[in-house]
Design goal:
The structure holds two protein chains of two kinds. Chain A is of the alpha/beta class. In chain B, β10 and β11 form a beta hairpin. In chain B, α5 packs across α6, α8 runs antiparallel to α10 and α10 crosses α11. Classes of the chains: A alpha/beta, B alpha+beta.
């Protein structure tokens, strides 16, 4: 099995007619994902290599039965696009847009929570979700993933998500689902949401978690691992050498005062029983041992 | 982007938050001129983006021309925690009866806005927070609903502000919240928010951090951007649309994505090297951006090797490869490049570079081996010393 997305997931790409939307939407389809529609206001009735384009998500859902959305639109329009998907009844919304204002994101998160509690937002500012061999929604290069499990991957950073997939695939370890939750301060889906889903998924036997400096989501995940997880967790935290007070690219990646250091996160995860690697390759090596021990 | 106090106060004024009359001065003469405009006594305040300037002697009271001049002379050029004072804010001195504290920020854990108010404002607020956390009233605000007058009053009541300050404080809090939300700030903080002897509540200081992601809808921020004192390398990088932070090691780092860039720094450190910078070319970087990144790194005299670590997702490796060739054709790079390419269009990217590999452009297959190679080359170029 996989979490959140599988071979039956039907995807509408919001922004399919843009250059990024087209490139990645078609790549997702080539991977085997059921990309059933595109949405671009004003371009309804056209198509992108056979994928029908609609003016609104609601029309796309009516015509194709899409239940997931891939949002690839610029920052000023991203929050509106996510809400439009939720309003149209889409249950899984993957938003890769980087650079959405924090106030828009905070409002978006709480509006989804209040008005559309059944819609799951992954991102923004994330690489998306891939359930290898079944479905790839987002910008991950599908060829670096390996189907068949038994490891689930959750990561706050985009490129480190790829690195994690690559390390496991190199070691011959497959993945059930791999998702990036995004590096922004208010992600739609948290580490804990993913750990919970992996814990409940019978095919996922172990979890690789990739965090980074800033905030306290990794510490909260550590609490969850300690109290709720029976499956082994291997973790890696980026930013050990990051200087305090400097925002390392992601809006969320900043050490302020004693808060959010890589050291504190690594200690919390170790104390929770996770095995903490000092770089992505080591995370892959540790996972080899963990998977061998699963028997 | 952090604002200077005077900019924060100008920003506050847009939202109707009361502040003292004042003006900026870059020389003692200007300071005297501003002082006579706002009326004595005045406070001469160092404009630096760092806390603790009062304790460092960067804030002085002046009662006349002579005192203003000597205060300005003393403070201009002062080094406060590594920040050089180049500008002063001169404002009419207030008769302070009470010092409060007020702020709004995002509570990332609760995913809600957080308002904080205390009757114990002033320079020791951090100590108050640590020793007497109950002296700070806190209120979570749902961003969808916003701060109501009722919410603002609750904060003011719980903080036990003085009776005569309450109504004005409620109004100030509502204006401050508007500044936070409509002004697209990550943080707005007033410490102290004062009650004057004649019963007025206003902001005596202003700490504002703006959300860079919202810059597109705030053309008025351009003037704040203009006063940012940046490292030359950082300025050049920003003009090129790159996310760059200067560090002091000898291996230049270019990676796509903040996480991978941070991880690359860590790995360079683990194999015994030191990073000269953090540079994230972002998602979907074009050949132009990649070339610009190399140009920025090339301006850093300390760089002895350049590690390019790319794992393509939205970024396409063929574009990265073209950018490297473009940069090699455009500028003479002082340091050799060690390159690792994986992910989207990696094969196309490697094919583009295949005929150009040399001792100055080395390809490695993994992040770890590339880091080792880059650190080794940096050590060699520095004659064994790093």
């Amino acid at each position: 099995m996989s979490i959140f997305a599988d071979e039956n997931t039907k995807v509408v790409v919001q922004g399919l007619t843009g250059s990024q939307g087209r490139f990645h939407g078609l790549r997702n389809r080539a991977y085997g994902t059921k990309v059933v529609a595109g949405v671009t206001p004003g371009k309804g009735g056209s198509d992108v290599e056979g994928i029908p384009v609609y003016d609104t998500v609601a029309q796309a859902v009516d015509a194709t039965g899409a239940d997931a959305s891939f949002v690839v639109v610029p920052p000023p329009f991203a929050a509106g696009a996510v809400l439009e998907a939720a309003e149209a009844g889409i249950s899984l919304i993957v938003c890769i847009t980087e650079g959405i204002p924090a106030q828009d994101e905070a409002r978006l998160f709480n509006q989804l929570k209040r008005d559309y509690p059944n819609a799951r937002l992954i991102g923004p500012n994330c690489p998306g979700i891939i359930s290898p061999g079944k479905c790839n929604i987002g910008i991950t290069a599908g060829e670096i993933a390996l189907a068949g499990g038994p490891v689930g991957i959750v990561s706050r950073s985009g490129t480190l998500t790829y690195q994690a997939l690559y390390e496991l695939t190199q070691q011959g370890i497959g993945q059930t689902t791999c998702l990036g939750i995004g590096g922004d301060p208010v992600p739609g889906t948290s580490f804990i949401d993913c750990l919970q889903a992996f814990e409940a998924d019978p095919e996922t036997k172990a979890v690789l978690m990739i965090g980074e400096i800033g905030g306290s989501e990794e510490e909260r995940a550590a609490d969850f691992i300690a109290s709720e997880m029976s499956k082994p967790v291997v973790a890696y935290i980026a930013g050990v050498t990051a200087p305090p007070g400097r925002r390392m690219g992601h809006a969320g990646a900043i050490i302020s005062g004693s808060q959010g250091t890589a050291q504190a996160k690594m200690e919390a995860l170790t104390a929770a029983g996770a095995r903490v690697a000092k770089n992505p390759s080591e995370a892959g090596e540790i996972m080899v041992e963990v998977v061998k021990g699963l028997a | 982007m952090d604002l200077f106090e005077y900019q924060g106060k100008q920003y506050f004024a847009r939202f109707g938050i009361p502040t003292s009359p004042g003006g900026i001065a870059d020389t003692p003469e200007e300071a005297v001129a501003r002082a006579s405009e706002v009326g004595y006594p005045v406070v001469v305040k160092a404009q630096v983006k760092v806390g603790g300037r009062g304790k460092a002697g960067g804030v002085r009271l002046a009662n006349d021309k002579q005192e203003t001049r000597s205060a300005a002379e003393a403070i201009l050029g002062m080094n406060i925690k590594g920040h050089l004072v180049r500008r002063l804010w001169i404002e009419h001195a207030s008769d302070i009866a009470k010092e409060y504290y007020a702020s709004f920020t995002l509570d990332r854990t609760a995913k809600l806005h957080l308002g904080m108010v205390s009757a114990k404002g002033g320079v020791e607020i951090e100590q108050v927070a640590a020793e007497d956390p109950r002296a700070i009233a806190r209120l979570h605000i749902n961003p969808v609903e916003g701060l109501t007058e009722e919410g603002a009053r609750k904060l003011v009541e719980e903080a036990s502000l003085d009776e005569e300050a309450k109504d004005q404080a409620v109004a100030v809090l509502q204006a401050l919240y508007r500044c936070f939300v409509e002004g697209d700030a990550d943080l707005v903080e007033v410490n102290p928010l004062i009650l004057t002897v004649d019963g007025r509540v206003h902001a005596l200081d202003a700490k504002v951090t703006l959300d860079d992601n919202a810059a597109y809808r705030h053309p008025e921020w351009e003037e704040y951007r203009a006063t940012e004192l940046e490292d030359e390398r950082e300025k050049l990088a920003r003009e090129k649309g790159l996310n760059y932070i200067g560090l002091d090691g000898s291996t230049g780092i270019i990676a796509n994505g903040a996480g991978l860039a941070m991880s690359t720094l860590d790995v360079v450190n683990q194999v015994g090297g030191s990073a000269a910078n953090f540079l994230d070319i972002g998602g979907g970087a074009s050949a132009d951006v990649m070339a610009a990144a190399l140009e920025v790194i090339n301006t850093d005299e300390r760089v002895r090797s350049i590690l390019v670590n790319i794992f393509g997702g939205i970024t396409r490796c063929d574009e990265v490869a073209r950018g490297i060739l473009d940069a090699l054709g455009r500028v003479e790079l002082k340091a050799p490049i060690v390159l690792r390419l994986d992910g989207t269009n990696a094969e196309e990217g490697r094919a583009i570079l295949a005929d150009h590999l040399s001792e100055r452009l080395i390809q490695e297959t993994t992040m770890l081996s590339a880091a080792r190679k880059a650190v080794e080359m940096a050590a060699q170029a520095s004659g064994g010393a790093r």
